[in-house]
Amino acid sequence: MNTNDTITAPATGIGGAVTIIRISGKEALSCAAKVWRGRTPLEQAEPRKMYLGKVGGDPTLAVYMKAPASYTGDDVVELQCHGGAVAANAVLRALLSAGCRMAEPGEFTFRAFVNGKLDLAQAEAVADLINSGSESAMHLAERQLAGSLSTQLDAVYDGINHLRSECEARLDFPDEELDFDTDLIQQCIRLKEMIAKLLASREAGARLRDGIDIVLAGRPNAGKSCLLNRLAGFDRAIVSDIPGTTRDTVEHECVLCGIPVRLTDTAGLRNSDDPIETLGIERSRRSIAAAQMTFWLLDASSENINEETQELKAGCPGNTIAIWNKCDLLSEESPLPELDVPSCRISALNGNGIEELTSIFKDIITNNGESSIMPETAVNARMADALQRGSQALDRASEKLADEDFELAACDLHDAASAIGETTGKTASCDLLDEVFHRFCLGK
Ligand SMILES: Nc1nc2c(ncn2[C@@H]2O[C@H](COP(=O)(O)OP(=O)(O)OP(=O)(O)O)[C@@H](O)[C@H]2O)c(=O)[nH]1
Ligand SMILES: [Mg+2]
Known about the structure:
This protein is an alpha/beta fold. It has 14 helices and 13 strands. The protein has three domains: 7-117, Gyrase A, domain 2, CATH 3.30.1360; 133-206 and 380-427, tRNA modification GTPase MnmE domain 2 (Four Helix Bundle (Hemerythrin (Met), subunit A)), CATH 1.20.120; 219-365, P-loop containing nucleotide triphosphate hydrolases (Rossmann fold, 3-Layer(aba) Sandwich), CATH 3.40.50. The chain has a seven-stranded mixed sheet with strand order 3-4-5-6-2-1-7, covered by helices on one side. α4 (120-131) runs antiparallel to α5, α6 (148-172) runs antiparallel to α13 and α12 runs antiparallel to α13. Bound molecules: guanosine-5'-triphosphate (GTP) and magnesium ion.
């Protein structure tokens, strides 16, 4: 991407009351001045002050952020015009005629990266912040944007480079008595431990960023759709006392214990002669196989409890919670069969027991408290791949160090640093940068 010209794009989505058009580059002020008229000419505008003027005949606010104290690090002007596509397009057309180029998705953040305002891990946090589906995912992105993850990644990168310089010093002054930091292998191990700790945060981060797929399964009439509606907080799916009500899968995204989840309500499992219901049941089985967790509903009021538990006992996927539903129809002490999976008693109808269900859910996904549900920082899949390659190169370096082959060890350490440097963009190739920034939306 060219970083010398002046770019523009709407920074807000369509449909709001106001649209903000962002302009960034050396000519931001002069391009904006060609289209915007106010009592103070824009060239004389004080930075970070709002000026009311017009673009065409329409009232438009203008604010100037002088380089380098702007989001991109370039001169930036933001114009606030009426919401809706018509007003925004008129301003954009005028800016394009005045010499701006339409920005690519992510190009403002790319400029911030090139100008050293953000590293790659922080730039990715900007995208995460926009896409976060829960408050906890948003806080994770905020911490990453503030640089908490970058600090840890940089510590590994710097540590590897320090180790490499120690190896190279041994090559340059082989016969001299230097005050070497002797245990190089030990340093390698420490760096690998730091990488392992970062890699361990990947799963918790993925949970917060991408959410968890939960399928609601069980026999017809167990109350799956009723529970979906209870968790969603509104009538998302049809509930009826006719067994076989749900045919197609019904999905709903919501947040449980601060974690974004995708709930899938399915057709009740039974042998059916109805071809449509049979197709629905096939879909249920596919959803169960694909989900990360199953909420298996059992009708606690059923006359044939054994029939309810048959399928569950025959074998259920990992991470299953057995949910005895309709417990409002039982007396409190009524015994229920023992099951091999965590279970709870609820009433989807009146909401009793839902807290116990969500607390079991929380325990399972945090491996009974072993991993943090709200990690301070967490690497993403791209970073995890680079960290893994870095760790493997450190393994190779350790072997060379054991043989006191400092030249080859330095080569492996160079590879390790280059892999780790990709995480924050210190060593990222153009292709990698393209890939990361194209995931952004227009105007960011
Ligand atoms: N008393 C009581 N009735 C419930 C409860 N949960 C669901 N029901 C009733 O049970 C019937 C079936 O509920 P659904 O949620 O449609 O059951 P389902 O598992 O989705 O059934 P299918 O879609 O046919 O597989 C409805 O009449 C619900 O009102 C509960 O906790 N207590
Ligand atoms: Mg249903």
